[in-house]
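Propose amino acids for all 402 sites.
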């Protein structure tokens, strides 16, 4: 097992495009690290530089304290599981798992047999050992690929979107499986995904990337409660955070549905900055008729356009007007996030017992202590609590002397 240190890693492909642009990430021994971000942000490139499948343009890659920039992949002792598993179709499951051991020519036949059985027991593949990969389900193939990584006793596991080929149900099961296995083996893991649910559920820490730049490196909880900028705020969470126009004057914040008072520490960096973007998550609203204790929040009346009732909860949609400059800002954010256009509508999650119906002018409660305020020019979260936000490189640069 080993720690992985990436120091100022840059990757420029032939055409000069910086696919990875000065990224520093430390993965602790035994840690489960997620690299997440929209398509093209450089996740696979970074992972391939760790394994040695891609040259590093500049920076240092250290594994267990040793610089490995110039080591061939086979000399780095890492195990990579690809999206397409790369199993040998003509070999049985047993032989697929045994393959790296036979290749190394270091073990006797009985030692190999022990290791294959140990892995297959762990992965619940015992009854499939004599079958061919072609006859297995996607999840079983996935486990064979992991078995091959396990028997090698690699220093770290590297995964590149290993679950993206599976259907939603199996993806959920395999997610739990990978998490359990990683904890049991305690093996350093770097896992690439563009799925924020995988990122949140699997990672000890998550590195959020955008266009080759590290946006924030933090625990799932830190990312969720303290996103460093608009991009992270919009990327993490489903349904996503609502973004509203906000005008801050002293400690009062004018929103499309009324004006609320925030604690002074929240507005300290935001006051007098003109038009800002307020962010508030769907679950921080409630039907005021259902919410028992209205104490810590604020209520407003608004016309509900659509209601989606799911039994345990309901999503209500409330359209609002936004000034044109904010519309442009949100359109750009949607492009960055690789998502559909962000509508100027509020999505609120209500308790399943709420009777609010389409067309109602409803009274909605909002937990104002959960509001974030973003600078539309830089995207910076002006209300972030730096003690509970992990690392935000953009803010480190700002704080550096000179
Ligand atoms: N061989 C290559 N030559 C030139 N540019 C490349 C090459 N491979 C990737 N790129 C570029 O580098 C950037 C990062 O690519 P990368 O494959 O790392 O993205 P990714 O985050 O893994 O995306 P996805 O989620 O689509 O897999 C992209 O803009 C891509 O076009
Ligand atoms: Mg990729």
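Proposal:
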């Amino acid at each position: 097992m080993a720690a992985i240190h990436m120091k100022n890693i840059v990757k420029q492909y032939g055409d000069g495009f910086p696919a990875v642009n000065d990224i520093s990430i430390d993965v602790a021994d035994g840690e489960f690290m997620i690299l997440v971000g929209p398509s093209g942000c450089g996740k696979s490139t970074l992972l391939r530089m760790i394994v040695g499948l891609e040259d590093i343009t500049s920076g240092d890659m250290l594994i267990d304290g040793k610089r490995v920039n110039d080591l061939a992949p086979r000399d780095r002792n890492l195990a990579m599981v690809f999206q397409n598993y790369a199993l040998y179709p003509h070999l049985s499951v047993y032989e697929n798992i045994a393959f790296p051991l036979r290749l190394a020519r270091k073990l006797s036949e009985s030692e190999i047999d022990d290791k294959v059985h140990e892995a297959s027991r762990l992965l619940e593949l015992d009854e499939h050992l004599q079958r061919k990969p072609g006859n297995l389900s996607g999840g079983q193939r996935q486990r064979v690929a992991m078995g091959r990584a396990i028997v090698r006793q690699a220093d770290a596991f590297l995964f590149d979107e290993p679950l993206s080929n599976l259907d939603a149900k199996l993806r959920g099961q395999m997610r739990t499986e990978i998490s359990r296995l990683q904890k049991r083996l305690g093996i350093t893991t770097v896992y690439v995904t563009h799925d924020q649910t995988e990122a949140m559920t699997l990672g000890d820490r998550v590195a959020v990337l955008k266009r080759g730049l590290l946006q924030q490196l933090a625990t799932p909880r830190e990312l969720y409660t303290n996103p460093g900028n608009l991009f992270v705020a919009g990327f993490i969470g489903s349904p996503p955070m609502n973004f509203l126009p906000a005008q801050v004057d002293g400690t009062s914040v004018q929103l499309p549905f009324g004006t609320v008072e925030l604690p002074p520490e929240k507005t300290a960096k935001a006051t007098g900055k003109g038009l800002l973007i307020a962010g508030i998550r769907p679950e921080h609203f409630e039907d005021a008729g259902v919410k028992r204790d209205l104490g810590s929040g604020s209520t407003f009346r608004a016309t509900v356009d659509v209601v989606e009732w799911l039994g345990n909860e309901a999503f209500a949609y409330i359209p609002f007007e936004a000034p044109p400059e904010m519309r442009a800002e949100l359109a750009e954010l949607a492009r960055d996030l690789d998502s559909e256009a962000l509508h100027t509508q509020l999505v609120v999650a209500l308790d399943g017992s709420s009777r609010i119906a389409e067309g109602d002018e409803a009274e909605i409660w909002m937990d104002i202590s959960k509001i974030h305020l973003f600078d539309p020019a830089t995207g910076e979260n002006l209300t972030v609590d730096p003690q509970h936000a992990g690392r935000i490189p953009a803010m480190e640069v700002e704080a550096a002397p000179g």
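The chain has eleven helices and 21 strands. The chain has a mean pLDDT of 90.
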